Amino acid sequence: VAVSTPPGRGGLGVVRLSGTRSREIADKLVRFKRPGEWRPWKARIAELLDDAGSAIDQVLVTYFAAPRSYTGEDVVEISCHGSPVVLRHAVERACASGARPAEPGEFTLRAFLNGRIDLPQAEAVRDLIEATTLYQAKIAAQQIEGSVSRRIAPLKRELVDLIALLEAGIDFAEDDVSVASDEEIRARLEPLIEEVSRLVESFAYGRLVHEGFSLAIVGRPNVGKSSLFNALLQQDRAIVTEIAGTTRDLVSETTAIEGLPVRFMDTAGIREGQDVVERLGIERSYRAMADADLALVVVDLSEELTQDDRAILERASKSGPHLIVGNKRDLPRAADPGLSCFEVSALTGEGIALLRQAIVETVAPAGRLEQDSGFITSIRHVQLLQESKAALERARGALGQGLPHEMLLLDLYEALRPIDAITGATTADDILNRIFGSFCIGK
Ligand SMILES: Nc1nc2c(ncn2[C@@H]2O[C@H](COP(=O)(O)OP(=O)(O)OP(=O)(O)O)[C@@H](O)[C@H]2O)c(=O)[nH]1
Ligand SMILES: [Mg+2]
Questions:
Q1: H/E/C letters for each residue in 33-51?
Q2: Mutational pocket test of ligand 1: of 220, 222, 265, the residue with most ligand atoms within 8 Å of the beta carbon
Q3: Closest ligand 1 atom to the C-alpha of 329?
Q4: Which residues pair with 322 in a beta bridge?
Q5: What pLDDT does residue 405 have?
Q6: CA torsion sign, 77 to 83 to 89 to 95?
Q7: Residue 50: CA count within 13 A, CB half-sphere
Q8: Averaged pLDDT for residues 179-197
Q9: Angle of helix 106-113 relative to helix 119-130, nearest 10 degrees?
Q10: pLDDT at position 229, please?
Q11: 221, 269 Cβ separation under 8 angstroms
């Protein structure tokens, strides 16, 4: 038993019970208007009782009969009014009647143990709950539906088939099973390596979806970094003044662009030798530029490029991905700086929408839209896939050297193990079934 809604007061609070005795225990907590209302998948009005048997809340009780419930067990959900004392009472009474408090995530753990969902689906439930953008939620929802497992399943099937082929060649060599030729093995191995590589590569975008990225806004004082920061955030967050050197420390704030969480960092304007505080601020600006996934280098189009501007541009070109932004395009422009840059006005908002788009296009790899489903967002999954890929490549190497198939098999099992760790184990029976199912052994 546990309260499944967040702590605190609210309109509703849900107490969830799971297990074979959940209905029996719930019976001690609630009284239906009419007896015999325990009908599965129907919401019923009831009264929640105190220890003396009088009503303390009017509640809605839903019974999900095993195995068609979230956990795969009998589940009872009691929707109470969201009063912490009422909810605590319900949980305590359930415990007094034989339930025990659920561990964190235990309902989902049981769903997994009872085979309702596989590991990627269970992990996606957590991602859905933790999503900070609607897009993240959508991707997690697809994964709860099984998008990751669906993408990995054919790969695993092919791998198990290949293992079965080699096992059969070794075990039944004296019989009428021919040993697979090296060409055939290679023809099956190559697509496997390609598919695993594609999955590993999909993480470049998946990581962005899951974790988002960071972006540092840098430039010399007064070019409008804080103004641009506020315009991108659509919030009056950082202090803006006409005094050069206004921002002295990092200011950061998270928002979403096209559903990807982005941590924007406004930095102190960079210029040569000033007071101690400013110098320390400038050091932080440099560090932010180096650490960020992307830097926006801001220059002022209404003034000619200064020595400071050039020094920062030079530094940015060495430090990693960056975009140059020409700000204050609403003002009469100075001599052409000879830069290709995104022209914007943080003051009027001109060009900001295009800049947002350019930011995502720079950070996210091409083809991300085709990957709208089935890409890898979990670091755990990608590490396992990398292991699998390395083992498959070793198998290819062994094949090239003409090593015996027993050796090849070791590598293939090494490649299967990490995939099993993602989607659930392959048993010896799976492999035997594949051998006996697809080969005509005739015995
Ligand atoms: N006309 C015009 N003025 C702008 C624009 N963007 C910023 N400003 C003005 O430029 C001045 C400096 O803006 P800030 O955003 O504080 O500049 P900053 O780069 O953060 O400056 P420091 O924090 O001192 O490094 C302010 O007076 C802003 O109003 C713009 O697009 N057009
Ligand atoms: Mg500033």
A1: CCCCCCCECCEEEEEEECC
A2: 222
A3: 31
A4: 295
A5: 87
A6: positive
A7: 7
A8: 91
A9: 160
A10: 97
A11: yes
Estimate to the nearest angstrom the gap between the alpha carbon of 27 and the chain centroid.
Answer: 40
User: d(Cα 186, Cα 255) in Å, to the nearest integer?
Assistant: 48
pTM of the predicted model over 0.90: no
Task: Name the average pLDDT for the chain.
Answer: 89
Q: Mean pLDDT over residues 156-181, rounded? A: 80
Ligand 1 center–CA 328 separation, angstroms: 8
**Residue 249 C-alpha to ligand 1 middle, in angstroms?**
16
Residue type, 323: L
DSSP annotation of 178 reads P
What SS3 state is found at 398?
A: helix
239 C-beta closer than 6 A to ligand 1: no
| Token output for 181 | 């030729």
Summarize pLDDT for 17-60 with one digit per residue, the tens: 999 999 999 999 999 988 778 899 999 999 999 999 999 999 99
Find the ligand nearest to 331 CA: 1
Q: Is the CB of 407 under 6 A from ligand 1?
A: no
Which ranges in 212-346 belong to alpha helices (H)?
225-233, 276-291, 307-319
**What residues contact residue 42 under an 8 Å CB cut-off, 6+ apart?**
62, 63
Residue 288: what pLDDT?
92
- Distance from residue 215's CA to the centre of ligand 1 (Å): 19
Asked if 187 and 158 touch (Cβ cutoff 8 Å), the reply is no
- pLDDT higher than threshold 80 for residue 441: no
CA dist 392 and 159 (Å) reads 10
Testing ligand 1's pocket by substitution, the residue of 240, 308, 325 carrying the most ligand atoms inside 8 A of its CB is 240
- Give yes or no for residue 285 CB within 6 A of ligand 1: no
Say what the pLDDT of residue 442 is.
46
> Residues 61, 62, 63, 66: is their CA dihedral positive or negative?
negative
Confidence label for 433 from pLDDT (cuts 50, 70 and 90): low
**Does the beta carbon of 346 lie inside 6 Å of ligand 1?**
yes
**Ligand 1 proximity of 330 Cβ (cutoff 6 Å):** yes
| The pLDDT of residue 240 | 92
Confidence at 112, pLDDT banded by 50, 70, 90: confident
- 217 Cβ closer than 6 Å to some ligand 1 atom: no
State whether the beta carbon of 226 lies less than 6 angstroms from ligand 1. yes
423, containing H or E segment: helix 405-423
